[in-house]
């Protein structure tokens, strides 16, 4: 009787430049490789630098592989970079799919090394910027070297994805000396449907939600512009609505802490309706806030993508946001929310007041399909089986 030939999975490796943090397990740096492994049947490794005794472990079939370096060295030192390069050099021939984030000198060198050692391997770069990259260089040897390095990288890479349609459009309009249009594709970040099933969370319909608005992020930073939200609700009668501001506040951010203190001193009646929860690291607990909320507010000055907008949409929150990150793609021409101008307190206050008074329809998810937002759907855009 003949033995059945064992099926050998292909191997994928992502090398990142920063030490690993457990919070990454809810972000694209972990979830994209995780779902590539599930959909295309790859054994997946994520390789990262570690300056302490971080033991290799496997999470959701993804192997986390630390490359140790001396604790005194900065994470982005030359020696640290050399160790990651050495790992790639020793393992390139075993890697069927090599992945990197961002266009950098390190990424360019790694792609070139990988393709030199493994011509049949697939090299993939995931970009999260707006697509505007500086391909114009000064007339000197350093700039010339950089230009030639990037050009060679783009010649060798097999796939380059962008998170936003604007990013994809911007890079296709730029001149880098070669045509890479056939390698570019749009792949927004998705939602982790496996996790929502694992946590056994049933997403509420609008009729089951509460009169709740939320915002989530690093509160009080210049980027998040939390002050805009608080200024907008200062003189609004919230009636039976409750606002939860979810996220940590840097204790060194004295200016924002004083702003919050003055807000409640001037408006003590809002202590029960404007609530700072602190950071919530437990995914189930965090998603419970999204699930009961009707409205998600984002006042950021800038975002690379804005993963919180994905979560807001998945839990059927009407999105009120500045035009940052993937806002335009996710809101779909105003279907699932509305845009607010940067630093315009009166405009935001007007929108929130209309919502509270029932003058703005926020029950907008009747024909929404969560599958279209899932990582299963997004990662299939790569078409690795073709």
Summarize the topology:
Elements: E1 10-15, H1 28-40, E2 42-50, E3 57-59, E4 62-68, H2 78-91, E5 97-101, H3 105-117, E6 122-127, H4 141-156, E7 159-162, H5 165-172, E8 184-186, H6 193-198, E9 212-216, H7 226-233, E10 242-246, H8 254-266, E11 274-278, H9 283-292, E12 295-298, H10 307-314, E13 318-321, H11 327-331, E14 337-339, H12 345-356, H13 375-379
Parallel strand pairs: 1-2, 1-5, 2-4, 5-6, 6-7, 7-8, 9-10, 9-12, 10-11, 12-13, 13-14
Antiparallel strand pairs: 3-4
Helix pairs in contact: 2-3, 3-4, 7-12
Structural class per helix/strand content?
Answer: alpha/beta
Report the biggest beta sheet as strand number plus sense, adding barrel if it closes.
8 strands, mixed
What does the average pLDDT come to? 92
Number of domains: 2
- Going across the biggest sheet, name each strand in turn: 3-4-2-1-5-6-7-8
- CATH fold call of the largest domain: Rossmann fold
CATH class of the largest domain: Alpha Beta
Q: How many beta-strand elements?
A: 14
Strand content: 15-25%
What fraction, in percent, of the residue positions are helical? 25-40%
Helical stretch count? Answer: 13
Q: Identify the CATH homologous superfamily of the largest domain.
A: Glycogen Phosphorylase B
The radius of gyration over CA amounts to 23 Å
Poorly predicted sequence stretches spanning 5 or more consecutive residues: 1-5
Which CATH architecture of the largest domain would you pick?
Answer: 3-Layer(aba) Sandwich
- Give the overall shape: elongated
Can you write the helix and strand succession as a string? EHEEEHEHEHEHEHEHEHEHEHEHEHH
Span from first to last CA? 34 Å
